[in-house]
Amino acid sequence: MEFLPVVVVFGLYFSSIPIAFALFAATLVYFTFINTGSPVDLILQRFITSTASFPLLAIPFFIMAGSIMNYAGISSKLMKMADVLTGHMTGGLAQVNVVLSTLMGGVSGSANADAAMQCKILVPEMEKRGYSRGFSAAITAASSAIAPVIPPGINLIIYALIAQVSVGKIFLAGYVPGLIMCLSLMVAVTIISKKRGYKPSREKKATVGEVLSQIKESSWALFLPFGIILGLRFGMFTPTEAGAIAVLFCTLVGFFVYRELKIEHFSTILKDTIYGTSSVVLIIVAASVFGYYMSWERIPQNIASLLLDITDSKIMMLMLINILFLVLGMFLEGGAALIILAPLLVPVVVQLGVDPVHFGLIAIVNIMIGGVTPPFGSMMFTTCSITEVPIIDFIKESIPFIIALLIALLIITYVPGLVMFLPNLIY
Predict the structure, then answer these.
(1) Out of 16, 34, 90, 122, which residue is the most buried by the measure of CB atoms under 10 Å away?
(2) Residue 63's closest CA among 244, 229, 283, 219?
(3) 314: buried, middle or exposed (CB in 10 Å: 19+, 13-18, 0-12)?
(4) Where are the domains of the chain?
(5) 351-355 contacts at long range (C-beta below 8 A, 24 or more positions apart)
(6) 255-264: long-range contacts (C-beta < 8 A, 24 or more apart)?
(7) Topology relative to the membrane, per the entry (predicted)?
């Protein structure tokens, strides 16, 4: 009976009930019908007190900063930077697509926002240059998986709150995995483009002068992620204050440097922020309530013991966890999978000697790959709905990119020194 709420969560979720309400309803079932010795008021108290978290304020700030990017001209400057760096390569615009997601990850941190922006800006241009619409949508969705891995990704903050690890450390740990994903997708693009004859977007490689000129023009946008990391490392501000500074920085750059941000844009920016924040925070709070039930029944400890009974090999355990994340990622929304599974699995991997910061990146990369795969991949739906590409065409074109991301996942999983290099160096 103690596992009944878990069954209720999945039952409600697959009945199209939003995950936040499914988590809350399952906890209510437990404390109403199973654990009748505890007052139901405890759930409501837990629900309310979970919102009284200062670190949670970082989420709306970073969501707002990402929204301001698109109106402030920062996104367009980053696209020019990506074109200067990779436009001369085979499959030029597809390479630009991948690099732009990597650059945007450092400022927006949202996969769906990145996918939506590139669908509107890059996909039409790719079609004009002879790329198939299915290929364009597939590489846009696959490359958007990079954005939340590079700081200040919202999932990085959520995991830091769940696993009680340093936000600064997990931010630093995100850079190398993001670059590995970027390189793996660029190799896949090169192979496919050579077979199909997709041409570069630039006739020749940019000169050193052009690169330096574009770096200067894009420097304000490029400075943001490094400024956040340095500020966190040297104790100049907390993660929440970093989010507020990011909003102020993007606003000032949009108004006074690039001069593309207008007062009338702020009504849309505020709506984007409210919608994005409400959905994320509601899930986090509901998960906190659900975590109260799991702690009461010692479910994380029981699952840790069960998994350790299966194998005490770190290599095999990480493989099993990767498979678990990938399978659930096909059915669960990424944030929901992270919030449900992380509290269960962190005690297991810590007992095997895996750094929780390293595990956080493994988990986040997993759920980002899940966002590209059917049947419930959120980036898949975002790109297909905007570009009007049939799901079946998207699936056919996305297979090489999913394979490339899985190769990157294996490197991130089994070469921890790459992931932990920057956190160990700086901290």
Answers:
(1) 122
(2) 244
(3) middle
(4) 1-52, 53-426
(5) 351/304, 351/308, 352/308, 352/312, 352/314, 352/317, 353/314, 354/314, 354/318, 354/416, 355/416, 355/420
(6) 255/72, 257/220, 258/72, 258/73, 258/74, 258/77, 258/220, 259/73, 260/71, 260/72, 260/73, 260/76, 261/68, 261/71, 261/72, 261/73, 262/71
(7) Multi-pass membrane protein
